[in-house]
Amino acid sequence: MKGGEEKTNETCAMALKWITHFIGDIHQPLHASGKAQGGNTINVTFGGLDTELHAVWDGYIIYLAAGGVHRFSNTTLAPYMSNLLSRIADNDFLEPVEGWVRCVDPEKKVEECVVGWARESNKWSCEFVYGELPEQGTDLVESGYAGRAVPIVEMQVVKAAVRLGVWLNALVEREFAEDEDGEEEEGGYGGQAVLESGGLWEL
Asked: Could you tell me the CATH number of the domain that includes residue 33?
């Protein structure tokens, strides 16, 4: 991003990592719930493995959705994400895709966008994560709970990715939207384009 000499590549890289982590985290339902410390104190069984509910929503469900992998590669998520991204244009999720980018303006106050995202996640926490949780001792995979959770997790992952992409595009556009006289160009960021396998899809 454009800036003074004091804005080093390392500083920008750390800022990008932080905002990526933050926006991703806030879309995980149990990161927007204080009940049972975000599910960390609720012991569950997942495919025969004894773990905590938070860990299930942090990783085990998405690993199940990706074909039963134990963890993703440190270098790419392409095999998993390519399938999800191709579904954006088809609007193939539990909620309409166009609604995801109604509030992605970096200029807006935190409570106008980010708190709204957290409320969305908290709603899933109340309605499904805890609302559909079977009694203790029930295997979450064998009971079907994990399978029913997959569409929610997939949607939240893609929703976070779309919002992050549009938010970053808006931020970069703002930084570079000055003409030769140092005045902001009219119009600014139209920013409704997100990556879709094979090109760009206009929201």
From this structure: 1.10.575.10
